[in-house]
TrEMBL record:
Annotated disulfide bonds: C314-C326
Organism listed in the record: Oryzias javanicus (Javanese ricefish)
Record keywords, A-Z: Disulfide bond, Glycoprotein, Golgi apparatus, Membrane, Signal-anchor, Transferase, Transmembrane, Transmembrane helix
Record field: compositional bias (Polar residues): 79-90
Top EC class, one word: transferase
Membrane topology term: Single-pass type II membrane protein
Cellular component per GO, a single term: Golgi membrane
Pfam families in the record: Sulfotransfer_1
Protein name (record): Sulfotransferase
Claim: Flavoprotein is one of the keywords in the record: no
Length: 368
């Protein structure tokens, strides 16, 4: 009897040992599976944890969805930054490819709207549109195509409205806008400095006499009945008295406007582009613009060709287009003919303003 009981106890002990061993193996197996899942990357496992958007109608899912969106945006931004580097002209032999448009779509989808860190503030008829169109082919620049006139006409709408106008940008990109009238708006530098003391300012300047004639030519194309250039430019032509209240003349008195800007910004925060050199050497001028903005020199002479019909440089066509990228019909239009005596009188008028401007910015634009 005792022998039978001993034998039964041994069997029970073996069964208990096997059962315990089985539980231990099962526990170890699930721990291994759990640990493997915990160390998966955000692109893999974390993405699977996000519920499908169509089923995310309940408020309980809001926090989880926001976390998922953050993870997706972060991952996409990293992929976008890598993609941008692979598709620059430097990486494609100096030629633009379809990567240009893909870069833009990446920023539009995953970027954020930010206040601009750089502004093209002037001057009208100096070449600001050309600078904008040339610089915006850089993969690290996203620019607003239209002129928002925030700091001169729409300031009461507030910075949130202004930010809402901006294109979406990735963290590695610069947000840029252009409004040439800022340079001659007295309140503009103070308002811009309130937005940011570190804003970089680009000013495109041109021989003030040529600029005034170009300004008049544009106005004449819209209002053919306006007085002649000479009538508007002088209060008394025989005495050589120039009408400085006429906007076309006043804009070209660059030093007077610059003195206002220097009350709020350091000269080192301002870069002056020569409108003349922008025509004869666009790659050189844009190289200096890229340096000023802290960008790699990607826009080079390989991107330009001279359009003899317009008398202006154009961008060579991207691979995705059958046409080159030139400025609009209003750019490069033929100026009205002005008497040489009038031109010389205006050159004499502007000379002291030009000389002081050269001395202040440390650059001789050779307009005299």
């Amino acid at each position: 009897m005792a022998h039978r009981l001993l034998s039964a106890n041994r069997v029970n002990a073996r069964i208990a040992f096997i059962f315990t061993l089985s539980l231990s193996c099962t526990y170890l197996f699930y721990n291994i599976i759990f640990y493997r899942g915990a160390v998966m990357t955000n692109q893999g496992y974390e993405g699977k944890l996000c519920p499908p958007r169509k089923s995310a109608g309940g408020k309980k899912l809001l926090g989880k969805l926001e976390n998922c969106a953050s993870l997706e945006a972060s991952s996409a931004a990293q992929r976008g930054s890598s993609h941008l580097q692979r598709n620059t002209p430097a990486a494609t032999g100096g030629q633009w490819t379809d990567g240009d448009s893909r870069n833009m779509s990446i920023a539009q989808k995953y970027g954020n709207k930010k206040l601009p860190t750089a502004l093209i503030v002037g001057v009208k008829k100096g070449g600001t549109r050309a600078v904008l169109e040339f610089i915006r082919i850089h993969p690290d620049v996203r620019a607003l195509g239209t002129e928002p006139h925030f700091f001169d006409r729409n300031y009461d709408r507030g910075l949130d409205w202004y930010r809402g106008l901006m294109p979406r940008t990735l963290d590695s990109q610069i947000t840029l806008e252009k409004t040439p009238s800022y340079f001659v708006t007295r309140e503009a530098p103070r308002r811009i400095s309130r937005m940011s003391h570190e804003t970089k300012l680009i000013v495109v300047v041109r021989n003030p006499v040529t600029r005034a004639i170009s300004d008049y030519t544009q106005t004449l194309s819209k209002k053919p009945d306006i007085p002649s250039f000479e009538e508007l430019a002088f209060t008394n032509r025989s005495l050589g008295l120039v009408d400085t209240s006429w906007n076309a003349i006043r804009i070209g008195m660059y030093i007077l406007h610059l003195e206002n800007w220097l009350q709020y910004f350091r000269l080192s925060q301002m870069h002056f582009v020569s409108g003349e050199r922008l025509i004869t050497d666009p790659a050189g001028e844009m190289g200096r613009v890229q340096d000023f903005l802290g960008l790699k020199r990607i826009i080079t002479d390989k991107h330009f060709y001279f359009n003899r019909t317009k008398g202006f440089p154009c961008l060579k066509k991207p691979e995705s287009s059958s046409q080159p990228r030139c400025l609009g019909k209003s750019k490069g239009r033929t100026h009205v003919q002005i008497e040489q005596d009038t031109i010389e009188q205006l050159q004499e008028f502007y000379r002291p303003f030009n000389i002081k401007f050269y001395e202040t910015v440390g650059q001789d634009f050779k307009w005299d």
